[in-house]
């Protein structure tokens, strides 16, 4: 089971190594947009939308990695002061009854929109924009799957660790 958890971790680690370059591209494109607009008086809707697409891709594809490295949002007003055993119980409960059902619901409810977007190859959000809204919408199920895979890896480790309730 540990090998399965490691393999699932590897998916998000590998993806994170590639996705981090999206931030570099995003900064460079935004810099070019600013220079183009204020120095040369040139503007491009497609270039502006590309920053939006890259931003969406970065955050949606890095969701599983964020969970892996434990940098996700956590309300630890009480959690920080609990024993390791109590933290493990809360983590197991959270993964099984909050995170997984939320991801499944998001996947279920977003799928018709994603499917329809692919069916018509949904075009740009703005006139002159990038003709690939269907690709951006595809980030939603990708996010759900990556977070659920990472959640399974974490659950495997939580349930195999000593002192599990």
What is the gist of this entry?
This protein is mainly α and 165 residues long. It has 6 helices and no strands. Keywords: Cell inner membrane, Cell membrane, Membrane, Transmembrane, Transmembrane helix, Transport.
General description of the model:
With 165 residues, this protein is mainly alpha-helical. It has one domain (2-160). It has helices spanning 2-38, 45-61, 63-68, 84-119, 133-137, 139-160. The chain starts with a helix and ends in a 5-residue tail after the last helix. The mean pLDDT is 94.
Number of strands: 0
What low-confidence regions span 5 or more consecutive residues with pLDDT below 50? none
H/E element string?
Answer: HHHHHH
Task: Please indicate the percent range of residues in DSSP E strands (runs of 2 or more).
Answer: under 5%
User: Helices and strands: which structural class?
Assistant: mainly alpha
Give the N-to-C terminal Cα separation: 19 Å
Query: What's the overall geometry?
Result: elongated
Question: Whole-number radius of gyration?
Answer: 20 Å
Domain module tally: 1
Largest sheet: none
Number of distinct helices? 6
Average residue pLDDT: 94
The proportion of residues forming helix, as a percent range, comes to over 70%
Subcellular location: Cell inner membrane
Protein name: TRAP transporter small permease protein
Family: Belongs to the TRAP transporter small permease family.
Keywords: Cell inner membrane, Cell membrane, Membrane, Transmembrane, Transmembrane helix, Transport
């Amino acid at each position: 089971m540990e090998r399965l958890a490691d393999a699932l971790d590897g998916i998000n680690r590998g993806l994170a190594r590639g996705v981090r370059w999206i931030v570099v591209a995003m900064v460079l494109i935004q810099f070019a947009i600013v220079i183009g607009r204020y120095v040369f008086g040139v503007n491009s809707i497609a270039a502006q939308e590309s920053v939006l697409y890259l931003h969406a891709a970065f955050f949606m594809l890095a969701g599983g990695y964020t969970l892996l490295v434990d940098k996700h949002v956590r309300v630890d007003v009480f959690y920080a002061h609990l024993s390791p055993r109590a933290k493990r119980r809360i983590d197991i409960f959270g993964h099984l009854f909050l995170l997984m059902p939320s991801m499944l619901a998001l996947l279920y409810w977003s799928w018709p929109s994603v499917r329809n977007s692919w069916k018509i190859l949904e075009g740009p959000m703005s006139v002159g924009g990038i003709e690939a809204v269907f690709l951006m919408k595809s980030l939603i199920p990708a996010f759900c799957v990556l977070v659920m895979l990472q959640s399974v890896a974490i659950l495997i480790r939580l349930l195999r660790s000593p002192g599990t309730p």
